[in-house]
Structure formats: C-alpha cells, structure tokens
Amino acid sequence: MTDIERPDTPTLSIDQQLALRTAAARLHGEFDGIFATETIEQFLHSSYDQFAGHSTIPNFLPLLAERFARLRLRALAKVEGHHDGKPTVLFLCVHNAGRSQMAMGFFQHLAGDRALAWSGGSEPGHEINPSAIQAMHERGINIATEFPKPWTDEIVRAADVVITMGCGDACPIFPGKRYLDWELDDPAGKSVDDVRPVRDEIERRVRGLLDELGVPALT
C-alpha cells in the first residue's frame, strides 16, 4: 500500500500506517484472484473511516478496519458469485451491541461451519453490552471479542435472510430479500438478570431459524 494517508483520513501514527500495510497484505493474500488491488485497498480505507470518528482506542483501528473489510469483501464475493452455497443470515438491531450480537453468537455456535451469520447496527455503539457478554458466557459462548459495526449494501445483498430487531425504518430494504422481524426487548442498560430472558428467547428463535434453513443444531 503506497499511500496509506489520504486527505479525508485523520493523521496516522507510524504504527498505524504499518498496521494498515500489514492488514492490506493479508487481505491481498486472501482475495488474490478475486478482487483487484484497488478494490481491496478501497474497502480497507473506507472500513477504517467507519470507525475513525468515534473509536476511543486508536491503536485498535487498523485491526477493526481489517476485520470489517474482510467481512465486506467476503460479502461482495458472494454477491458476485464466489461462494460455497452456505446459508447466510444477517442480524440487525440499533447499536449492534446486544440483541444482534447474541443472535449471531448463538447462530455460529449452533450451526458451526455449515452456515454463516453476520450482524450490524443502524447506530453502532462503542462496545458490546457487558450484560449480554456475561449472559452469553453463561451459555459457553464468547461474544466479548466482537465489536459494534454498521451494515453496508454488499453485506445486506449477500445475506439470504435478514433478521431485524428494533431498527424500524432505519433497517435496509432490498426487493426480493427475505426479512423477518423479531420483537425483542432491548438489553441496553439492563442487568444480567434482565438480559437472560432476552437471551433465552433469542436462542429459541435461532434454533427455529436453523430448522427452517435445514441446518441441524450442533447441540
């Protein structure tokens, strides 16, 4: 990556520039032969910009940008016909900090590598809800390493099913896409005791969704 700093990107430290170059090299290795260099770098830059305005830990920005760019590139690859046929579900809520993260956690845990789950928010928060993290930990599922993120057009277009949870009119609508709306209490600001019933209802619905998709739950 020859020009990591751009006019619309905040000044990067030497460490951040190096981290982004390293991230770009990894992405090039993963998507070589699928996307051109310009596409990969544009996705990495724009993913960085998504988090640069509100991140409280600048040193993590290159890692977040790489992870989000990888997700977006995988989604675009599926849209363009490069996929293995696995069902893909997108869980959407407002802050992508509680409900959608718990749903994605259950889906990944129960489906294994036989289906894919992504998540996003209309107004992404800054961190995963601590009560949601603890409630999921009680079920042996770690969502602490996830991070709130927005959705993008390619991510929505690549999903076979879009599950909305309280984002209302802000949820993206694409003609021909299958949508399901799950009415669930928002765990924001709630204690673990209050989040557990929401967690259990999400698990019930995820298991039902897997049955509909023909993906038997692993446990």
UniProtKB/TrEMBL annotation:
Keywords: Arsenical resistance, Oxidoreductase. The keyword Oxidoreductase applies. GO terms for molecular function: arsenate reductase (thioredoxin) activity. The keyword Oxidoreductase applies. InterPro entries: Phosphatase-like_N, Ptyr_pPase, Ptyr_pPase_sf. It is an enzyme of class 1 (oxidoreductase). Residues 87-212 form the Phosphotyrosine protein phosphatase I domain. It holds the Pfam family LMWPc. It comes from the Bacteria. Its EC number is 1.20.4.4. Gene3D superfamilies: 3.40.50.2300, Corynebacterium glutamicum thioredoxin-dependent arsenate reductase, N-terminal domain (1.10.8.1060). This is Arsenate reductase ArsC. It comes from Amycolatopsis heterodermiae.
